[in-house]
Records
---
Amino acid sequence: MVMEKSKIKELIAKIEKLPTLPVVVARINAMVQNPKTSAREVGAAIATDPSLSARVLKMVNSAYFGFPSQISSISHATTILGFNAIQNLALTATVFQLFRDNSGDELFDRRRFWEHSLGVGVLSRLLAEKTRYADKEEAFTAGLIHDVGKIVLDQFVHEEFKAVMGLVRANDMLLYEAESRLLGLNHANVAYIVSQKWNLPKKLQEPLAYHHAPGLSKYNPQLTGIVHLADILCRALKIGNGGDNKVPVLDKAAVADFKLNASDIEQLKNVSEKEIEKAEVFLEML
């Protein structure tokens, strides 16, 4: 039975109380929109938060990027990777910091949740390469945080989310269907609320909001379709666990333009294991 409208409003009010992004990340988001911004200015902005700087540099110097020599400054990293990549890394590091509590409970394994999220991020990046999407690191970030609504529900409306997880287990159903049945909204709706509160770029908002219904994406349908397909591939490959044991139906129309065949999918599966292993440094921040 769905919650009463008044209860749904209360639940949304609780979600809207989640922390805002740190000032430095919000500032970077604004800076990268300005074509006159220099790598030095971005580096100086991140350097005002030593903890964030250290986390970003740890990712930059990981096997995931595989640079032959150590990158010692954010400005140097920005010059090599570009503004958007550094912006995405700062956002990733911040999301991990905000939701680093891995205690959870037996119904929702946060470690397995982040393993699934990482897998979707890696596969989104690989799909971006295959489909010639303009920004591979943006695809990685979109995939990595696509399910942020789940972690928000678990952290801010824990008892209600426990009831959802109980329904998932009892009926072996998709998590978003159980959320809709009990709460009157699902984690994709919550992710959209979060993305607006954090003032994320619109091109990132849609993959979070519509990864289960990519046909609704108008602003960035390619990236939304990429994350949708990456999520389904991760579920089929049993990479981590997003909270249920089901594989959603693929929206074939949303990925028709990708022109991927069976051998492409097989290649993605083969490459993804090694790439996920390289990206596991991200999980060390939890």
Note: The CA atoms of residues 131 and 257 lie 9 Å apart.
---
Amino acid sequence: MADDIRVLKGHGTGNDFVILPDFDGALDVTAQMVGSLCDRRFGLGGDGLLRVVRSERCDDPQAQGAEFFMDYRNADGSLAQMCGNGIRVFARFLVDEGLADPAGMEIATRGGVRHVRRLRDGEYAVGMGEAREVGGVASVMVSNRSYPAVGVHLPNPHAVAFVGALDAAGPLLSAPEVSPEHLFPEGVNVEFVVEVAAGHIEMRVHERGVGETWSCGTGACAAVWAARRRPGASDSEIYRVDVPGGTLHVREVEGQFELIGPAVIVADGVLDAEWAAAWR
């Protein structure tokens, strides 16, 4: 059918996404549509949606500087600047479709153009750019306990709190309370981080617009940025970051961050026309 809507499902260390190829920008992607697709009981399920659109066919003002634009939406339909795990899955899709060179490609995002390449072991490396510290002292309240936090944009907003054990964050069924509120007017991702060894941390994260996720690429970079600047921290150029969904590696060189991790596509098909008609 001409009206068939193709969708795929993929993940990067358990941070999962619905992939929506829309090369010509023909679809009106609404918050209702995103929410329906990402619903884990009534849709395909995902932490977010990756719309694959040619920049020249997209009306987003930030869709420029590369052939393809990653139109990323959180599971609730809200926009996000970037997604470190998502862009690897996005790149994997382009490579599998023969639309990009695995040795290196540029992808436009709301956080700027990012360079992505496939490594020999099949993992993908993403140039994540610079971190920008959020001025002011922040704190995170969770499970009736307060922890000091460091604020950083990379480019999504993050509040990074170091804890003695990951279970200190509790069930994370609701968003941690971050104060003062004015530091993060657009909401914030919260990372709870444990220092395991030199150059090795583990992390849990609560993402704005989603909830607790099994991984967060921009959050891993933010956590490494904060970890490397703690008193007595390892000056290792590359850090291992363990998340509930697996392991990422983050390299910082002269203030520039690179995120390395897997990209997996698990399904490819079309939506049921009657189901899709509800939000078309």
Note: The two ends are 16 Å apart (CA to CA).
---
Amino acid sequence: MPLVQNILLGVTNLISRTCSMIKQNNIRQYTIGGIRFNVKIECPLFDFDRTGGSQLFQTPNKHIDDWNLTIDTCHISKTKTWKHIFKGSENFESEIPYKWSVVKSNYLDGIYVEFEEGSQIKSALALINIDEKKIHIELEPFKKQGQLKLDPFFQPLGILIIQYIVHIYGGFIIHASTVSYNSKGYLFSAISGTGKSTMANIWKQYGARVINDDRLLIMPSKKGYQAFNTPMPYYQDISKNITIHKAFLINQSPSNYLKKLPILKGTLGLLTNCMQFQYEENQVQTRLEALQSIATECGVYECGFKPDKDIVELILNEIG
């Protein structure tokens, strides 16, 4: 009898340790823009993608988590009807194989995304409980398949969630590149295809460190406004940040020039390139106040440039 009891005890301990390992393997901690996320995958259909864009944003668990994010599977079409209060994109396009909207029901806000056929995920619904700092993501795969490798901040749901949350802290997301040179941050904002990446690469060749060449998360701090990179959908990069020293609205030009803009014009110029949910007046007002602070404290400059290092020398000599 003691032998049987010992065997049963050993099996019980083994099961307990295995369950504990599974739970630990299904939990990751991330820090994005200074905000900590505790992410848990609750469905065995999904596992963390070690090649995903957020992989290098993982941080050790210090038991200080601002937000708890859980991921599960669900047939979203069978859930309660949600009121769509803002539609970000209504049609599938060649470069945007998804459409998304902000939804609401009772006290919960949500972000709903539908994907084109051919993606692993058919639809995703992120339910956001601001009071409890909880985010519950329900995913509906296209069809039955093996275990899916999943980046918890996958495109576009990840950046939409981050955008929603950073607003609470007075932050925002902007289409811009930012570089760090001599411990100073230079932000270059523009619409797609205008030269954000080109400008960042010129500064990189000059010896600067590129924070990101496409989109930035901007957060207020005691030192001013910090520019953070965010997880990108197509590549990995370590978490980086720098305090904004000067901001620029750029365009490619036959000659290099700089022109300091009035505070209002600089503010509105930056606002044009921000990601935002336009349905919420309070969010736009908060964003305007933050951008006005940047325009006042750092200055916003119109910058025409040729793709060579002369623009770097012009900025450093005339503005510093």
Note: The chain has two domains: 27-168, 171-318.
---
Amino acid sequence: MKKNIIPIIALGTIAIFTSCDELKQAANTITTTTPAKPQLTNDEVVSGLKEALQVGIKNSVNLTSVTDGFLKNADIRLPFPADAMKVKQKALEWGLTSQVEKFETTLNRAAEEATKEALPIFANAITNMSLQDGFAILNGGNGAATKFLKDNTTSQLVTAFSPKVQEAISKVKLTDYWNPIINKYNSAMKISGGEKINPDLNAYVTEMAIKGLFQMVEKEENKIRLDPMARVTDLLSKVFGSIK
């Protein structure tokens, strides 16, 4: 009887160790298996990119359409028009420093005022933007979606935004600060035989305001790409969380 007990105990011991090995393998399988990321469709990616741009332009307008939104932001502040730098230099020589400073301040006030009307214009451009390959833009790196928007909608944005800028220029009375400077300069040029200058302030403010907004939108896009906390919707989390 004792002889039979020994083989039975041995078999039981083997069975126990075999079961332990199987359990360890099962545990390892469970701990090393991670759930697969949900597969994205191109339509979801396109929707996510457009949503990111919508968030970006909304935040950008909120930041720029307030007092000093352009003036105190060194990245987008409107300087004296480049093609009128001779006017600025002469004005400073004539002791018109205060007038030049007031003009530059009001130039930025015009951009800030016009930007208040930018949101629906940009939102419409984003909604109607056609994206064939959302994955290429999603994986295109920082600013890729903003660059695509800029390349494909700038001309339409200029057309739509220009009347708003004209209204803003009138509201902040920009020409009241510009005319004394340019008239004095052009009068001097008439006497000296130099070239008269009178840049299109509406075109200048329009161009620079749109450029500034795109810069701000790109910053917002990059924030969404890099910071999960900036992905304020489930779609943004899903789409931008997929970037490797």
Note: The CA atoms of residues 78 and 108 lie 6 Å apart.
